[in-house]
Each structure stands twice: as C-alpha cells, then as structure tokens.
Amino acid sequence: MRIVVLAGGIGGARFLRGLKRAVPDADITVIGNTGDDIHLFGLKVCPDLDTVMYTLGGGINEEQGWGRADETFHLKEELSAYGVGPEWFGLGDRDFATHIVRTQMLGAGYPLSAVTEALCDRWKPGVRLLPMSDDRVETHVAVELDGERKAIHFQEYWVRLRASVPAEAVVPVGAEQAKPAPGVLEAIAGADVVLFPPSNPVVSVGTILAVPGIREAIADAGVPVVGLSPIVGDAPVRGMADKVLAAVGVESTAAAVAEHYGSGLLDGWLVDTVDAAAVERVEAAGIRCRAVPLMMTDLEATTRMAREALALAEEVRGA
Amino acid sequence: MRIVVLAGGIGGARFLRGLKRAVPDADITVIGNTGDDIHLFGLKVCPDLDTVMYTLGGGINEEQGWGRADETFHLKEELSAYGVGPEWFGLGDRDFATHIVRTQMLGAGYPLSAVTEALCDRWKPGVRLLPMSDDRVETHVAVELDGERKAIHFQEYWVRLRASVPAEAVVPVGAEQAKPAPGVLEAIAGADVVLFPPSNPVVSVGTILAVPGIREAIADAGVPVVGLSPIVGDAPVRGMADKVLAAVGVESTAAAVAEHYGSGLLDGWLVDTVDAAAVERVEAAGIRCRAVPLMMTDLEATTRMAREALALAEEVRGA
Predict the structure, then answer these.
(1) Mean pLDDT (whole number) for A302-316
(2) Positive or negative, the Cα torsion across B120, B125, B130, B132?
(3) What sign results for the dihedral spanned by CA atoms A63, A67, A47, A264?
(4) Which domains are delineated in chain A?
(5) For residue range A226-269, what is the model confidence (pLDDT) as tens digits?
(6) What does the mean pLDDT of chain B come to?
(7) pLDDT tens track for B215-252
(8) From the CA of B68, how many Å to the nearest CA of chain A?
(9) How many Å apart are CA A184 and CA A32, to the nearest integer?
(10) A79 pLDDT higher than 80
(11) Separation between Cα atoms, residue A264 and residue A287, nearest integer Å
(12) Chain B positions in Cβ-Cβ contact with residue A92 (cut-off 8 Å)
C-alpha cells in the first residue's frame, strides 16, 4: 500500500509513528511543510522536516515533541553572551549540527529535497520524507503590534509571541511561485490513499496545499483522501490552531475544519468521540465522517487512529 | 607605554597575560596571525585570534591552551554521525558560537578586523587585538604523502598529521597580495617597543611578517624590537616549531632563530638560561642578547619574562 501523508510538525510526526506501526509494510511518502522554515544565525532551519525526521528516527525530545533528546544549549548561551539573538528560538547543540550540514549542502548547490534525503540517510525514518517544495516559502502572519500593523515570520508569531495577539492574516509568502519538490506530484499520483494527520490545517497542511499543483494532484488522484481533526472539543489538541483558523475565518471546531478543506478535496474525516455531534454536519457537506478517539496519548492509541483512518479510506473506496 | 606584540596562538597568548601583569597601564596592541585560519563546516575559524581572545578574556581551557573552558562537543559528535568531517579539528559547542557570529558578520560585509573588535567587546581582553590583515592568507605546507607531493592546509599538517612528515616548504598563500589590517601600521609607527613573544617564528610571527609593509614598518619604527626564544635547549618549548624551521632551512636553536629574524629587524633577544652559550653567537650577529628563565610555568614566571623583555628593550634604547 502506498500512502501519502501531508505533515506539519509534532502532530504529523506522532501520527506517522502510529501509521508505521499500523501498516509496517506500507510505502509511506511524507510531504513536509517548509513554510515555517527560518534562517537563524546564518543557518537554514526546517523545524517541521526535522521534527518528522527526529521523531521517526528516534532522536526526538519525547516530552517536548521537538528538538533533540539529551540536548544541551551551550552554543545558544554563548550566542546570547555575544548579544546575538533571537533568544526566543531554542536551538540546541545537537540540533545545530543538522542546520550546519543542511546550510553547507544548500550552499554547495544541492536542493532542499536532496539535502533532506542526505540527512535522512542518517536518521532512517522509515518513510520517504520530501519537502513540499525546493523553493523558499515563508509563512508570514499579519498582526497589530504596538499600534502598528505588520507582517512577521510565523515562528516569531508562534514561538516569540505564543500567538498572544490576533492573527489578521496568514500568508505563505512565495507559495504562488513555488514548484512542488521532485517526487511530490509523482507520489500523490501513485498513492493508494492520502492522509491529513491532525496537523494545523492553516499553517501546516494549508501551506502545503498552497503550493500550486499539490491540491490539484490530490483532488485528481482518484484515491481516498482522509483527514483526522486536530480540533477536539472545539479546541486544538495542542498548539494554537484556533488563532490561525480565526485569521482565515474558520471557527475552531472539527466540523468547520472539514468544511474548510471541502468535499472537493476531502473524502473522509475523523472527529473525536466528544465531537460525535459533528458527524452529521460533516456528512451533510459531502464528507464521510466517523467519531473515534483522537487523543495521541501513546503509541497504541495513535496506532488505532491510523487504523481508523485507513478503514475509513477503504470505506470511501468501496462506496 | 605603547607596546606592539606579534602573536600566534598559545605561546603568544600566555606571554600576553604576563605582559599585562608586568605593565598593567600599558597600551598593548596585538597583531594576530591569521594564516592558520580555516573554513570548517561553512564557518570561518581563526584559531590564533581566538586563543588570544579567550586566554586574555578568561574563557580559555587552561590545561589545553586552546578552546573554551567548560566545553562540550555534542555538535561535533552529531556532525560525525552525519559523516561530516573533518573529525580531527576539535570544535566545541561553546567555541562554535564564536565562529557562527564571525561568519555571519563577515557574510554581512564586515571586515575581519571589525568582527574581531565586536567579538572582543564581549571578551574584553584588555589589549587591542588586530588581525594582521583583513585579506585571506592561508598557510599551506608542502609535504610528501603516499608518495605524492602536495600542499595541505597548515591545520591539516599540524593537527591531523601532528607534523609527523617533513615539511618541505611553508607558504603563506595570499600573503603577497594582502594588506595590513586597518590600524596595524599605525600601531607599529606609534609604538614605544615591539615584542615577539615565544611564538612559532615561521608559521606565527613569520606569517605576520610576510604581509607586505609589516616587516618594513617594524624595521623603520626606530624603537626597540625584542623577541623571546620559543626554542629552549634546542627544542620547541611546546608545539613542533622544529618541523617548520627545518622547512625554511633554520636549525632548531635559540641562536639560529634570532639570526633568522636578523639584526635588520631584531634589536634584542632573550634565550633561556640553559642556552646561555648562545648569547655570544647572537650578539655576534648584532643582536643584544640575555639569558633568563623562559619557561612560562605560571603567571609569575611569565610576568618576569615580560619584565626581562622590557628591560632589554630599555637597554637597547639607551645604547
């Protein structure tokens, strides 16, 4: 079975761990969000790609969900001592190595997809990890700060401000000119099923879909497209998805997110059992819907979620 | 008193600590060797400048003589895990920060002299530290390896090979085209005394003197120029100076090094008490010479060495 998964960071990475366990023999291609990539200290940092790579490769800080296990922060302390920031982005000593290798390879002319493959040669995540694009796409968030309206980098909004001010708009700068990375459209066209894990529908999955050609390829693939709601009981399971959903005029409910994707893209949608009442509304929008437990409390629960998503895909296929 | 010191790495840095203690109110300008600078992992590393900065700024690893105190090597371990080398150059996590800041500033267009000043803003070494040049100079060593004659970077010769093969030639590539960094010639012209610490006469002091204009400025300054022998009892006090002295046809003795500098440049020379027999030969070459203890065993001994060098300078001046 060939499965394509559109993944952001923590939610996507943890779901993938369950998916690999649910179908160990599946051929899984992950299309990773690069809209939250950021240049820090002259280095190219790809938080979502790295979270997937570290999580599946056994190097993740489990409690935190991002960054490396057994990490130290001496380099960052020293940068602060030099007065060099930003201080709000937590890069650890081990993590820095990934960004140094990536930056060197990019500087030598390799595209991000080739660099990601080289990094995965070490981590062996057990999936094929592709950046959504080799072109630079950078998600900016329009906010009002100190009485002034300005666009800031997504990471500044998310990490520095902790989404504490309303997001007036979310713009994946560069997405319109970006091309899908080599292998992305081919993977989608050859997939048996496409999954949207419980990742942020705006700044993770939404950014991937903003790269011209990807949304169309998924809609045209003629295979089941099934998503899992990142909203449980009208609130994000983790993160602050509600803040960016508001920016695109979508209410923070499991049903509204399904409608936001739309029946032209999505065939099936899983909501949590606490949102069972949403099933009817989602199905009325032309999207097959089931209510199942959606809390990724441990690998067992996550594996069950992946099985439910694949079961719903088969149900869609048989319909 | 305005003192100019031409410094390499460990020997120069330790001598400077004694000099500062000997004359706390002196205005000391250090002209640092940059011929052993190297690009590693996309970063610009300046080992000699950093050794001076860390030693005088209180950040040095005292036992080792280079690198940072309280250091960890997690980043480097990770680079090795990625298969990215060289593994033979020991960059620690704290040390990396210096190279990242430097590389970012150079990338932004600042010359090395301005970058060094910015780094020293943090370390406050208590001297004015100038790179010998803002232009790239890279010391290469001609060796025969595996039956093939080739030129390798000085660090590869020194650190990876530990000078285990004969150096057939030592070439400061780029030196002929290099200009002294801003402030270098002015500092020399305004000095009351110029000192050569017990640094490597070929790859440290020699490289600085290879930048057109610096040797001439010292010779023309009309002030005492006094050096301290890095060779004690026919062997280098530390390091492998004998290997590179052989490459330039100079025997590894305190007297031969003084003659190598020559009376056109050098006015006074300190040899260790074990080399007292060399005094006559050095003086016969037109260079005033004294035999005093030259082992920098502790700060007290180093301070006495600095005082002896300054005393010899006054003797020269009065002559």
Answers:
(1) 98
(2) negative
(3) negative
(4) 2-37+128-134+176-318 (3.40.50.10680)
(5) 999 999 998 888 778 888 999 999 999 999 999 999 999 999 99
(6) 96
(7) 999 999 999 999 999 999 988 887 788 889 999 999 99
(8) 11
(9) 10
(10) yes
(11) 9
(12) 74
Indicate the residue of B79, B82, B107 with minimum beta-carbon distance to A42.
B107
Q: pLDDT tens across A265-301, in order? A: 999 999 999 999 999 999 999 999 999 999 999 999 9
- Which residue has 């003197």 as its token pair? B209
Mutate which: A96, A116, A117, A121, vs B, most B CBs within 10 A: A96
Instruction: Give one DSSP letter per residue of chain B, joined into a string.
Output: -EEEEEE-SHHHHHHHHHHHHHSTT-EEEEEE--TT-EEETTEEE-HHHHHHHHHHHT-B-TTTSSSBSS---HHHHHHHHTT-S-SSS---HHHHHHHHHHHHHHHTT--HHHHHHHHHHHH--SSEEEESBSS--EEEEEEEETTEEEEEEHHIIIIISTT-S---EEEEETGGG--BPTTHHHHHHT-SEEEE-S--TTTTHHHHHTSTTHHHHHHHS-S-EEEE-SEETTEESSS-HHHHHHHTT--SSHHHHHHHH-TTT-SEEEE-GGGTTHHHHHHHTT-EEEE------SHHHHHHHHHHHHHHHHHHHH-
Residue B191 · residue B220 · CB < 8 Å: no
Chain-chain contact of A72 with B72 (C-beta, under 8 angstroms): yes
In the chain, the amino acid numbered A21 is: R
Distance CA A83, CA B16 (A): 27
In the block, which residue shows the tokens 């025969």? Answer: B144
Contact A143, A154 (CB under 8 A): no
Report yes or no for ipTM above 0.85.
Answer: yes
Structure-token pair, residue B5: 């010191």
